[in-house]
Amino acid sequence: MDVLVVGGAGYIGSHAVTQLIDKGYEVTVVDNLLTGHREAVHPEANFVLADIRDKEVLSQVFEARNFVCVFHFAASSLVGESVEQPLKYFDNNVTGMISLLEVMVDHGVNKIIFSSTAAVYGDVDIPMINEDLPTNPVNPYGLSKRMMEQIMEWCQEAYGMNYISLRYFNVAGALEGGNIGEDHHPETHLIPIILQVANNQREYVTIFGDDYHTPDGTCIRDYIHVVDLIDAHIKAYEYLNDGGQSQVFNLGSSQGFSVKEIVEACRQVTDCCIPAQIGERREGDPAKLVASSDKAREILGWQPQYDDIKKIIASAWAWHQTRPEGYGEE
Ligand SMILES: NC(=O)c1ccc[n+]([C@@H]2O[C@H](COP(=O)([O-])OP(=O)(O)OC[C@H]3O[C@@H](n4cnc5c(N)ncnc54)[C@H](O)[C@@H]3O)[C@@H](O)[C@H]2O)c1
Ligand SMILES: O=c1ccn([C@@H]2O[C@H](COP(=O)(O)OP(=O)(O)O[C@H]3O[C@H](CO)[C@H](O)[C@H](O)[C@H]3O)[C@@H](O)[C@H]2O)c(=O)[nH]1
To answer: Is residue 328 included in any domain, yes or no?
Structure first.
């Protein structure tokens, strides 16, 4: 029950830490606070301020504990930045993964649950994406994540490293009453940006393009609540622990919402008018990304609880209202 969460001070990782502790796991967090927040880490977790590329410190952490599994959330994850600074992404993401796997192999830890992304599929034009679709990442971020998957595949062959790669679609929401939530600088994700308008922190939201081949012309995405997402991680670990094979799973709600529909849903949840302006397309945005998550439902027995986009938005809204400035400067 002793687990390591790397990137546990970030948005998604901090939810993993809280949910693992609630389930009785002993949790150690390694995070360099590049984009994370010390305050986001549950007080009962052991916190180590370190970079996963620092193998010496990482080895000390492994020597001090008896980990049964590693949950790997630590990465740089801005698509646009990855195009401008590809080496940053290959260094942090790919080098970080190699360092982590080396230390795991050295210490006989053979289970890893990994944060992958829909970006491994690239620019696809099909109604519903399942895991059999060939990968074709179109930016360095997506490529780095695909490379990390491939590295795990070879480590499975060579060292018996068991992995589950979870390809997230659009993660949103916050643990209700949990005092943790999304706080990125800069914020690029649609829902927190819209909620910043409702909170009078921005004047309006820019809709990136309304000339896509979709019913209302704006991009369609599949939003999954962070609590449901972490539930799938814990189920993935239990599955490996029961002798399950290494696998890749999509994690989404299998429902698509356009940008305009998300803006409208946010208006209804917040009861604010939320001005929106149509802007240029954002480079690299596919028109539509919706997951088939049937495989995760069938093999992991995963059953997302948040099936209503307004409930997902309401949980994010509660966080942003309580902490409009996020965690503040640290
Ligand atoms: N947010 C999404 O919608 C989404 C979608 C698909 C995939 N993902 C993936 O999920 C993971 C978590 O995303 P997030 O939104 O919580 O991001 P985040 O930036 O909030 O969290 C990442 C955490 O990792 C830490 N970190 C980064 N590099 C590190 C390193 N070298 N050593 C130690 N710590 C390091 C950061 O300080 C931060 O706390 C990432 O791997 C991301 O690629 C996120
Ligand atoms: O101010 C904004 C912000 C976003 N959008 C639009 O809203 C949709 C969602 O955008 P996000 O930035 O919230 O999310 P993405 O779909 O671009 O990105 C998500 O999916 C990617 C894979 O495709 C990565 O995994 C990434 O980490 C994850 O957040 C997109 O159509 C985007 O163009 C706007 O119109 N205005």
So the answer is: no
